[in-house]
Amino acid sequence: MLIITIKQGKEKSLLAGEPWIYASAIEKVDGKPNEKMKAGGTAIVQSSSTKFLARAAYNSKSQIRARVWTFDEGEPVDHALIKRRVKAALAKSAAAAKKARPDQVVKLVNAEADQLPGLLVEQYGGKDGYLICEFHAAGVDAWKVPIVQTLIAETGCRNVYERADELVRKGEGLAFVEGALAGDEPPDEVPVTENGVKFALDLKTGERYKFR
Q1: Cα 30–chain centre separation
Q2: Which of 34, 68, 77, 109 could covalently link to 19 via disulfide, CB atoms 3.0 to 4.6 Å apart?
Q3: What sequence ranges are listed for the domain PUA (predicted)?
């Protein structure tokens, strides 16, 4: 297990609930070399006096060296936690998803706001449409399979597509990958109405076009 020790005085932001740990706040990282190089591996975060502060996803290639999963020492980071977080995020967005028209895009998961740092999930077309996922951080990227499995199980939507921002993933030291994670890829364009305005949207890139 990796252990991140925070510099004395730098733990205040964590104690206040800040979920990001920057490289400048870290005194040292202890662990096996292969664990340090594994993007998204779970680490225990402690103060300079070795007091437990958090469990976080560590990434040696990002300026945000770690993103907090939990401040609860008794809460392990495992499949059960990931499943709970995804289900909780979907419960929060359920009302909006239920009342959305087939030509609307609904945000289902909103990264840190849903305690899933770096994960964005949108839905188009309801149960028979598409889930569009973006994995902007190493932690959620490492848990991609259980995240997708839970999304499918909870929404009933069988088509899941990974959309990628090349610059963001490069900054995280992650490979640029995109494509269908389950089911079919979305079409090149779908009709979308937002605030009474109709336009064409490429779900695979997020690009908007004048409706033809």
Answers
A1: 25
A2: 68
A3: 2-91
Pairing type for strands 160-162 and 130-135 reads parallel
Question: Residue 37 — φ and ψ, nearest 5°?
Answer: -85, -15
CA-CA distance, 203 to 179, in Å (whole number)?
A: 11
Identify which of 160, 30, 51, 40 has the alpha carbon closest to the alpha carbon of residue 108. 160
Q: Could you give the CA distance from residue 119 to residue 179 in angstroms, rounded to a whole number?
A: 16
Kindly report the backbone phi and psi dihedral angles of residue 196, in degrees, each rounded to the nearest multiple of 5, phi listed first.
80, -5
Measured distance CA(100)–CA(126) in Å, rounded: 8
194 phi, psi to nearest 5 deg: -135, 120
Report the alpha-carbon angle 178-151-17, nearest 5. Answer: 90
pLDDT above 70 (res 211)? no
Which of 93, 43, 32 is closest to 65 using CA atoms?
43
| pLDDT tens by residue, 74-105 | 999 999 999 999 999 999 999 999 999 889 99
Taking a C-beta distance cutoff of 8 angstroms, is the pair 97, 67 a contact?
A: no
Neighbours of 115 (CB within 10 A): 18
